[in-house]
Each structure stands twice: as structure tokens, then as C-alpha cells.
Amino acid sequence: MRNSSSTLEFLPTRFILVGIPGLEAEHIWISIPFCLMYMIIFLGNGTILHVIRTDTALHQPMYLFLAMLALAEVGVSASTLPTVIGVFLFGITEISFNACLLQMFSIHSFSIMESAVLLAMSVDRFVAIYNPLRYTAILTMPRIFGMASTVTARSFITLFPLPFLIQRLPICRSNVLSHSDCLHPDMMKLACADITINIVYGLFVLISTFGMDLLFIFLSYVLILRSVMAIASHGERLKALNTCVSHILAVLAFYVPMIGVSMVHRFGKNHVPCFIHVLLSNIYLFVPPVLNPLIYSAKTKEIRQAIICMFHRIKV
């Protein structure tokens, strides 16, 4: 703790997390849907990871990218689990400063990984439709491993400065966060110093990762549509487009809530009630990991058959 210019400034040893403002008395009931969502996330994504690992027929680029997506979603959910369950189920609202920094880094880095994997999956769909005969020759195991390494390295390197940018800020207004987990925009608002660097760097991360990924996903689908339109048979066109449906739904499930959160944070922070911010943030963190295993299980024949075979073996 230090005194500078008659302003009390300090780095708190703990932050206070908040569930849903105004519904504190109902947190025990609100914890039920959160627990159900975590069960779906870990069981759903865990099942997909298991069938891809054990079924050699699924050791193909498309399913390996799906395994990466499932790992990223499990990472995001595992990062939020301790505080979300702690706040809503057990009423534990305190988190240490360092633990908060670690959670912030984990949530944002796994989210960036998820975005990058969705981009890799769009490239996979383009190669499969544009040049199906050389699909496995182009997307070889070394290249897929290289893409996975690049995705991981980009997430870590891009977010590495973020905890240090928070640590340099004196926190003197409050140590109460407005969510049930630690997020960079929420933490930097508590500072009583100039946060321009944090804002600029946060915007840079947003544009250079999510923004660029979404742009390249869009361009990939422009090229996919051009390739599909070059196919003579109407039935083959539909078949080619049908292979993209699961990925399109996964992209929408990820980016629509994220854009909603960004818009409300940037333009509606003074007009939108606090619980709307919390609700949208939870939708952004929970909807993709919950929906994607269901989407791919329902829309991908090979995944569905592998899951059925797995349960049949368990039953036997």
C-alpha cells in the first residue's frame, strides 16, 4: 500500500466476485443449471475426445481439428468452474489476486485458441471441397501438428503481457468484480490510474485474434461457395455444403455471443443493466462448449456412429 498525490493506492490481495446482481438469495437455485451445463460440457466434449482417440477411422484432419476444438472448450470451462461453482453453489466470493490473474489468462487464452481452431476447421473444409483427391496429402499429420502448435503459441504469446498490464495498475476504487470470474475488462475498470495502455492492448488482441480469425473464416467460405458453384451436379453441391453445416453452426455459436458481449461492453455500459452484462458474459462462455458436442454428434454421421458403438460396447 502506498500514498501518492493524496490518493490511496494498492494492489488488493483478494478480489470479491459477484454472481447475478439482485438474485443473491437465489444463487443456490441458479447453480443447478450451471452444474448441468458443466456436466454436458465435460461429458459431451470428453466423449468426442474419447471416440476420436480410440476410433482409428476418425484419425483424419476434420476430426483431429474437432478434438482441438473440444480441448479448447474444456479448457475454457475448466478455467471458469472453480469460481462459478464457488460463488453460486457454496457462496465463496473471494479469490486471491494471483489466482484471479491466472484465471483471466486461462479464460482469454483458451477462447483465442477456440477461435483459431474454428479458423483451421474452415481451412480444412475448403481443402476438402476444393481439392478432395489431395485432401489428406495437403493436411498431413506434421502440418496439423504444426497448426496446433501455432494456435497454442499464438494464444500464449498474445496474452502474455496481460497479467503484467493489470499488475502495474493501482487498484483503489474497489476490489469487487462484476462477474463470477475474472476477466480483463472487468479488472482494469477498478484501477484509479490511466488504463489507456490496457484498453489499446485489449483492442489489439481483439482485432488481431478474433477479428482476423472471423475475417479469414468469412473469406474461406467465399472460396468454398465458389468451389461449390463450380460443381456440375446439384446433388454433389448439396452434399459438399452439408459437410460445412456443423462448422457454420459452431462459428455462429461462438461469434454471435462474443459480438453481443463486445457491443454491450463498448456501447451499452451506461444504459444496460448489470445483470444483462453478466448474462451475456455467461452465454458467451457457456453456449459454445454446451452446443458444439451436441451439434457435431447430431450432424456428423461418423461421430454419431462412433458414439453409438462406444455405448454399445459399454452395454455389452
Write the layout of secondary structure elements.
Elements: E1 2-4, E2 7-9, E3 14-16, H1 27-54, H2 61-90, E4 94-96, H3 97-130, H4 135-138, H5 141-159, H6 161-167, H7 184-188, H8 196-229, H9 234-242, H10 245-267, H11 274-299, H12 301-315
Structural class: mainly alpha
Q: Report the sheet-strand fraction.
A: under 5%
CATH superfamily: Rhodopsin 7-helix transmembrane proteins
Rounded to an integer in angstroms, the radius of gyration calculated over CA atoms is 22 Å
* Subunit arrangement of the protein: single chain
Straight-line distance between termini: 64 Å
Look up the CATH topology. Answer: Rhopdopsin 7-helix transmembrane proteins
Number of helices, where a helix is a run of at least 4 consecutive DSSP H or I residues: 12
Question: Stretches where pLDDT falls below 50 for ≥5 residues?
Answer: 1-8
Domain G-protein coupled receptors family 1 profile: 44-296
Family: Belongs to the G-protein coupled receptor 1 family.
Membrane topology: Multi-pass membrane protein
Protein name: Olfactory receptor
